[in-house]
Each structure stands twice: as C-alpha cells, then as structure tokens.
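Quick note —
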Amino acid sequence: MAKENRAIAAINGTYFNGTYFNAYDKNDLMPYGAIMIDGTMKHFGGGPVAMGITEKCLTFGSVTEISVRGGINGSMKWPFNWYAWSINHAPTNKQAIIVFTCDFKTKNVSFPDYTYVVVCGGKVTGISQNKAMIPSDGFIIAYGAENQKELSRFHVGDTVNYEVQFPEKLQSQNHLIGVGPKLVSN
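Predicted structure written out below.
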C-alpha cells in the first residue's frame, strides 16, 4: 500500500499486531489498541503507546492510563459506578467487561458465557445471555462469566452512561491511534 502510493513512510497502526489480534484472520479483522476519530473512541483494547492528534500537533501518551468508566442513574460513585476493559474488542477471556457500540464489526454480538446489558437511548432496555443486538442509538456492556456479580447493579429502566478518561497529555486530542511499541522518538 505504501509503495503503490509512493509514500516515504507508513504507519501500520493497530491492525498488524499479530501478538493479540490478527489482521489476516477472517474471523477477527478487528484492530488492537486504540482508535479515536473526531473525539469518539471507536476501538480501545490495549497497547502501551498512544499518539494523540490535533490540528496543530502530535502528542504521545500511555494507553494504559486510558480507562472506560460508567455510571448508573446519574452517579459515577459506588455502588452505581462500573468500568469496562475495552471498547469493540472480542473478549479474550471470561473475565472481560466490554462496551460494544455500532462501530463494532457486526450489529449482533454473541460470545458464549457472556451476559449483555443493552442500553438504548441512555436506558437499560434488556439484559440477555449469550447474544444481543447493538442498538443504533446505544451500546451494550458485555460481562464475562467470571464477572457476573457485577450485573446486579443494572435494572431495566436505569439510565446508564460511560466516558473514556484520558491522561493529561491526551485529554485535548481530536484523534488518537495507539498500540505500540513506540519505535521512533523526537
């Protein structure tokens, strides 16, 4: 691709990290790391380094300092707070807690031993096991078998929200890509 476009350099970004997700596996084809476009986190799931992009500069920060935090019924404090490990990434174990949005590769999500909190228009509209459909105006929170106790916080009709929290270096970025390792500095 770089050669065809006569590029001097290319950044392969989050799709070619064979250690975690395989860009060549037709059953996966999802990025690893973080991708934020126009202030919306499209994918988030690991990697040590993030490159934040504004109109004027590039900033490097730690992906490990980015977090997904949520609240229930207007509170982000115990016992109404919750967290997720990633956004739009297939689970790698039964402990994972994942937010799936319309940016995931399919509308239907189905992972064995997972329970899904379906949030449509900011409210919990259902809690289902093993499969769920991502609403066009919402998201789902997937809880693995080893985190089922966390589900008792959610009830149909509750208002639910989440936010992505960034370290200081990356707070004002418009776009972000992250995976690592960082190969070149300065």
